[in-house]
TrEMBL record:
A single cellular component GO annotation: cytosol
Family as reported in the entry's similarity comment: Belongs to the peptidase C15 family.
InterPro entries: Peptidase_C15, Peptidase_C15-like, Peptidase_C15-like_sf
PANTHER family per record: PROTEASE FAMILY C15 PYROGLUTAMYL-PEPTIDASE I-RELATED, PYROGLUTAMYL-PEPTIDASE I
Record SUPFAM superfamilies: Pyrrolidone carboxyl peptidase (pyroglutamate aminopeptidase) (SSF53182)
Single Gene Ontology BP annotation: proteolysis
GO MF annotations, alphabetized: pyroglutamyl-peptidase activity
Highest rank taxon of the organism: Eukaryota
Protein name: Pyrrolidone-carboxylate peptidase
Any Pfam family the entry gives: Peptidase_C15
Keywords in alphabetical order: Cytoplasm, Hydrolase, Protease, Thiol protease
């Protein structure tokens, strides 16, 4: 593991009240034959349309990534770049942009809002400045708001040492350089928390993000 420091991503400047949220999940991997995040991400647009989109929120792209460092990061950067507003963007596109990455923790019994990512030398990702990025989003406030809605949810400072952490690390670096924001959320298996509850949680998370920003 490389040396570690702490850098907070800069806060976005005031802009339109509209918040655009893009989401990613992962495909299945060894030991997890059904990844709940793939189901969540694939069904989220339809679920939100059916149940009503919160005011001020636009659900952008929904992507499912390969559960492998090299397989996930290349398409991740492509999708991150696609969300950067252009000169011809509509007014809402010039508002706040958030990436929400969902990953599964097969041993978890609660949802976890991840505060930071750590550079891992095992992924051959050099980090000359010892950067340990943290999200600029109000993790504690997000967690409290979701807990008030009845969800079993906690904050976490350890996104693991697998692809979840790797993707979060790259997403936070991208966010710092491009004025967007990034958040990683770990979910349990559907055997632990059923699919409908997890879909409700994902929708509630987007609602909380729109209300806090």
């Amino acid at each position: 593991m490389g040396s570690e420091g702490t850098v907070l991503a800069s806060e976005a400047s005031d802009g339109p009240s509209c918040v655009t949220v893009h989401v990613t999940g992962f495909k299945k991997f060894h030991g997890v034959s059904e990844n709940p995040t793939e189901t969540i991400v694939c069904n989220l647009q339809e679920y939100m349309n059916k149940n009503g989109m919160p005011k001020g929120l636009v659900l952008g792209s929904c992507h499912v990534l390969e559960t492998a460092g090299q397989g996930a990061v290349a398409p991740l950067y492509q999708t991150l770049q696609s969300a950067i507003p252009s000169e011809n963007s509509n007014p809402c596109d010039s508002g706040k942009v958030i990436w929400v990455h969902f990953g599964v923790n097969s041993g978890a019994t609660k949802f976890a809002i991840e505060n930071q990512a750590v550079n891992e030398a095992t992924f051959r990702c050099p980090d000359e400045m010892g950067w340990k990025p943290q999200t600029a989003l109000p993790v504690e406030d997000i967690t409290k708001a979701l807990a008030k809605k009845g969800y079993e949810v906690m904050t976490s400072d350890d996104a693991g040492r697998f692809v979840c952490n790797y993707v979060y690390y790259h997403s936070l670096r991208f966010a710092e350089k491009n004025g967007t924001k990034s958040l990683f959320v770990h979910v349990p298996l559907f055997l632990t928390i059923d699919e409908e509850t997890q879909m409700q949680f994902a929708a509630s998370l987007l609602e909380v993000l729109a209300s806090l920003l």
